[in-house]
Amino acid sequence: MASNATNVTSPTAPAWLEPGDNAWQLTAASLVALQSIPGLVVLYAGIVKRKWAVNSAFMAFYAFAAVLICWVLWAYKAAFGQQMLPFVGRPGAVVAMDQELRQALLPTSGVTANFPLSTMVYFQFVFAAITLVIMAGAFLCRMNFLAWMIFVPLWLTLSYTVGAFSLWGGGFLAKLGVIDYSGGYVIHLSSGTAGFVGAYWIGPRLERDRVDFRPNNILSVLVGAGILWTGWNGFNGGDPYAASPDAGAAVINTNIATAMSLLTWTGCDILYYKKPAVLGAVNGMITGLVAITPAAGVVTGWGAIIIGLVSGSLPWVSMNIAGKKLHLFHVVDDCLGVFHTHAVAGVAGGFLVGLFATVEGSLAFAITNPGGAIDGNGRQVWVQIVGALFIIGWNIVWTSLILLFIKFVLRVPLRMSEADLLIGDDAIHGVSQYVLNHLSSDISLA
């Protein structure tokens, strides 16, 4: 068959473009995007009671879309642009074609990559988006959806961009030498802290939902968890900004730590509860992924094993012992335990970087003060602590201010009405995951 296509001469690729790096970076970004949609969308829909499946999934779906528009209009440059303050860049849009086609450059830190700015913008966006999606796990099953719609762009602008610029964009924590390879602080500690604080201000679920909160679809949870685990290859493997040996090291260390953490958490469940728990294994998987994130490309395989051992045990104690005995955790209704799986695991991983970072790994990641205590750089331990304290403090203050602004200035309730809480998806979105004949049946079976 004859073709009607005309010959089109492809433009010459610029000298700085490395096709392999660009292809890997876009692949890594797509893997991270899949962690949010469908990964956490599916996980959230399965782990909640059936009457909350649609609302929980939709909170994640909305956040992904809202973050992207804010990101390209002002937030990317606030996080990775020219410095405006020691902890944030100057906001601005990145939607012009001449910007998208030029070489990726982080101007404050002086980092360049061999792929276009458009690739960098998308890669950094998926990290920003998943931070809000993770945080949603603390607010599920009672947060007013309108309040969530307002909260997402405000928190992205006033909190996430500050952490990202301070640690990744060339801000004061980067200059201090804090190591956060792929977001243990920027993403997980911030979302875990903000999730816990936000859960306090929003208020708890209905008592009946807290007492009986059995998942409606365990297999859906496992599918979502599997997408999370696999997608983390892009999460950590993409952060050298190149298809480099360091990317391979980050990927294998990520999987080693995750497997070790899952096995450790399951072992703790067997010792304490006398049976292995499926949701416990998922939690152990998540804490392993979180804890290795700040360290993935700068530690050895042995370091990854130790990090996995700690991430499978310390957050387990936090969730199963402290979480059940301390009054604070009964007052604050962190629906999915985001504080334990992300904040505690993020702090643990960040601290362990200070101990186990190697000179070789640090130099490969262009860290000027390389290595941790294991290689004679004891200073790195307290530097990591300083970084964690800043992220915790900033998120406590700004998450509180944003939610109080929404509640008292905008006069938008943070929590759903009691009637909506009783019914769930049908009342909020006019649709349920499962269509039942009678509304009363939906209430009784929820």
UniProtKB/TrEMBL annotation:
Residues 23-434 form the Ammonium transporter AmtB-like domain. Gene3D superfamilies: Ammonium transporter AmtB like domains. Its main location: membrane. Keywords: Ammonia transport, Membrane, Transmembrane, Transmembrane helix, Transport. The chain crosses the membrane at residues 23-45, 57-76, 121-141, 148-173, 185-203, 215-235, 247-265, 277-296, 302-322, 343-369, 381-406. InterPro entries: Ammonium/urea_transptr (IPR029020), Ammonium_transpt (IPR001905), Ammonium_transpt_CS (IPR018047), NH4_transpt_AmtB-like_dom (IPR024041). It is found in: Cell membrane; Membrane. It is a multi-pass membrane protein. One of its GO terms (cellular component) is plasma membrane. The keyword Cell cycle does not apply. GO terms for molecular function: ammonium channel activity. PANTHER family: AMMONIUM TRANSPORTER MEP2 (PTHR43029). Belongs to the ammonia transporter channel (TC 1.A.11.2) family. This is Ammonium transporter. It comes from Piloderma croceum (strain F 1598). The lineage of its organism: Eukaryota, Fungi, Dikarya, Basidiomycota, Agaricomycotina.
